[in-house]
Amino acid sequence: MVVGAFPIAKLLYLGVRQMGKPVANRIKAGARRSEFFKNYICLPPAQLYHWIEMRTKMRIMGFRGSTVKPLNEEAAAELGAELLGEAIIFLIGGGCMVLEYSRQAANSRRKEEELNETIISLQTQIGELTLITETLDAQLREVNRLVLSLPAPAPTKK
C-alpha cells in the first residue's frame, strides 16, 4: 500500500493557528495587567470601535448629531483586550494563508520549470534527429546516384 506525501506544512499551519488562541489569551491577560498596554494599546482602539459602533447604531435608528459617551476605563480595557486578541488570531490566520499561498506558488513554479526543461530537452532531441535524418537522406541520395551511375549489366546468353 503506497501512502501519499504527508501534508506536513498544512499540519504545521494548523498547529500554529491552534496555538494562536492561547497566545492571544495570554497577551490579553498581560494587556489587562500592564498600564502601558492598557493606556496606549487597548484603550484607544476600544474607544474608537465603541464610537464607530454607537454612531452607526444611532444613524440606523434615526438619531443624528447625538454625542457618544466614551466607555469607562474598565470596559474599554476589556473591549480593547478582546480586540487585540481577535487581531492577533486574525494576523496568525492571515500569515498562515500567505505562507500556504507562497508554498503553493513555489510548487507551481518548480513544476513549470521542470516542464520547460522537459520541453527544451525534447526540442533539442528533435533538432538532433532532424539533423541525423537529413544526413541519412543525403547519404541515401548519394548511394542512389552511385547505383544509377553504374553501367547496366550485359545480358547473359544460355
UniProtKB/TrEMBL annotation:
GO cellular component terms, A-Z: mitochondrion
Keyword GTP-binding: no
Coiled-coil region list: 98-125
GO process annotations (BP): locomotory behavior; musculoskeletal movement; regulation of buoyancy; regulation of lipid metabolic process
Tagged with keyword Ion transport: no
Record Pfam families: OPA3
Keywords on record: Coiled coil
InterPro entries: OPA3-like (IPR010754)
PANTHER family: OPTIC ATROPHY 3 PROTEIN (PTHR12499:SF0), OPTIC ATROPHY 3 PROTEIN OPA3 (PTHR12499)
Role noted for this protein: May play some role in mitochondrial processes.
Family under the similarity heading: Belongs to the OPA3 family.
Name by which UniProt lists this protein: Outer mitochondrial membrane lipid metabolism regulator OPA3
Organism of derivation: Oryzias sinensis (Chinese medaka)
